[in-house]
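Protein in question kept in full:
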Amino acid sequence: MQRYIARRLIILIPTLLGVSIVTFALIHLIPGDALDALIGTQYALTEAQAAALRSYFGIDKPLHEQYWVWLTSALQGDMGYSIRTGKPVLPQILAHYPLTLELTLLATVVAICIGLPIGMLSAVRTNSALDLFGRFFALLGLSLPNFWLGTLIILVLSLYFRWLPNTGGYVDFFEDPLTNLKQLIFPALTLGTAMAAAVMRMTRSAMLEVLGQDYVRTARSKGLSEWIVISGHSLRNALIPVITIVAIQMGYLLGGTVIVEEIFSLPGVGRLTLNAIYQRDYAMVQAAILFIAFNFVVINLLADVAYGFTNPTIRYKE
């Protein structure tokens, strides 16, 4: 197991390197640079002052030199300075990360609590009214865009319940846990709906396949209760693809909470990255996307490790 994890960690290096190259190239395809946007909106600088600032931030060099300087600095823990704030970008990302991580975890909990039971019952009661409801829920959940669902939640709460969701003044969990959960429950529901639909569909498909296996029929023939057969024999073996889809969805959520964070005015990594894109803050965008990619790969590694605990028959070659 240790050697397997070590190999997967080594694979992180070319993956993150490729992500950084692609991101760097795509960002610089945009006409102009961050200093052009800064000068055009806030300051009136002379050509000499603008040239001095470009030299200070290193954006006057050729692209390959800029990338090499950034890469060598990143390997030393320095991922650059924001051209907007003048501060290191990595501490800013880490300061916004707890909110995005908490929102992702809450959305995952919502998805599992909704999608897993519905998927199990839908598989056990195939073609029943419950199964039809489950499939309809999955179709609806996958069809509703996050931005529409989030806007609808705000609209309904505002008009009919006079309960306005958080629109600023975010409270950290460790400062006031109850207020923090109140602020994040509706964004978590917005993100968790589509994830719950995916979990439900995967759980149903996996359970249907497992329920037809010989060992399940043997367990029933021994006189075991239906609950033990389903929870102890069927569900555990059906969880492998479910863990996979949950890990993939969590990776997407860590980088895909941009719209929801913007709608609900949450200062997470997604909103930070969106603002950096608007402001052409290259260092911030580069570091944020690389950070999100790192989280995605680590989550998939944890999912691979979880396979062995879920199904002891799985063995990793040393």
Summary: The chain has two domains: 2-74, 93-310. Residues 176 and 202 are 36 Å apart (CA to CA). The first helix runs from residue 2 to 27.
